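Hi, here's the filled form for the chain we discussed.

Project: internal
Contact: R.S.
Residues: 520
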Amino acid sequence: MKKRYFNLISAAAVILAFYLTGITADAKTADVIQTGVYADHIDLSGMTTKEAEDAIEDYVETLDEVEITFLVSEGNEVTATAGELGLSWGNREIVEEAVMLGTEGNIVQRYKALADLARENKVYDIEFLVDKDVVTALIEERCAEYNVEAVDYSLVRDGDGFRVVTGQAGLKVDAEASADKVTQFMESEWNHEPAQVEMEVVVDEPLGSEEELAKVKDILGTSTTSYSTSGSSRSANVANGCNLINGATIYPGEEFSAYEAISPFSTENGYFLAGSYLNGQVVESLGGGICQVSTTLYNAVLQAELEVTERHNHSMIVTYVEPSADAAIAESSGKDFRFINNTDYPIYIEGYTTPEKQITFNIYGVEERDPNRVVTYESVILSVTNPDTELIYTDAGRPVGYVSAVQSAHIGYKAQLWKVVTVNGVEESREQINSSSYKMTPRSVTIGVATDNPDIYNQIMAAVATSNIDYVRGVAGALATGGEIPPAPVVPVPETPVEQPQPEQQPEQQPQPEGEIPPI
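And the returned structure, exactly as it came back:
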């Protein structure tokens, strides 16, 4: 009973003290923070919710310019501001808590909260956040210049042997791990002053070793083609592309791209204008003839039995290899020749050209195949389509007498390439490697027909109607010089092109009349 009376007396005393001291919830304006409430060092006393939020936001903005230095490898540094890291205020709920301080609970609880506040200030910690995605992107962008690419061990042809070039380890900033570290520091440890954070740097070990590369001695595959009929520009392109591939060391599992090795096709990269295929026509382009480089390499790769991952045939037949044994490269259509080193050892590509205009690729590695096993490749022609017309294009912007270079006719082919493996002279397997289709294109020419003389115009158009290129050239020349018009040829009845199955036929070398552009 005495205890009960004591509790009642204590409660009454608290209530009396609450009113006598003037500390009441009603004594303050609603939504106004009590005296003695802080957010970090910011005095929130007497502020409304909006005023308190604005005050904290203003403080956070003043920290945007504080510099955070990223320590990269080898003494390199990158500086960013806290604002660039996406600094923001995280625990916005502290303002609501501050407003409610001394107004929640029963009268005793409110009295106690206000009494505590009267004795000691209430300080809320401001929590800061940064945007990890922004931090990661910033590290990737600004630290990239200090990344050091690993240099793999490689080979250099030295006389009749090889010399090993020592590799070098690389260093790279791990952007993801570094961003985690920066985020943790800014949100948990940062004292709002300029600071430094050490980046996470990983070592990228080079591929290969002297011992591994010393084993590369055997020729796994070789191929040679001739470009003896090529002009100086095309010959220079072939030699340049060959030099750009020569010396490549490819490790097991690595993929090699011929396009990446020999591009860009620019004068700065050593290329000249020469003939190339485009939409069934021969046109001048930088790097014309480069497909002979990729084709020769393709045949060496086939002999080495490496894994071909991308190969395209030309749009029209070429004459330096058999049908389906070519590998075209075309920047405009995204054609590339790619293969993977599927052996257990590194391989080395040797490429060279000779004064006799021959290009050779040798692929060196470690020979583990059965010496009694022989691999050959057979080109099988499925059909041949011979052109039976000639195309004459008129150009009203050029005068009568103009005759362009004649585009050669190209026979159309459908062909396959087969891999034949024999062991001790006995055929063990026969596998189709690819299938190719080459366009048939007629012989063609463009002539000028612009003239103010109706008779001359009628004569040149009558010549065009014969679809005979040689006759049109003769008429154009006569009209331009005032010479005698040659007699018109007998126009044959055109026949529909017929695909003729010819399983073992090989493409014939096409004659090149004077003034015509040779096939690529």
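Let me know if anything looks off before we file it.
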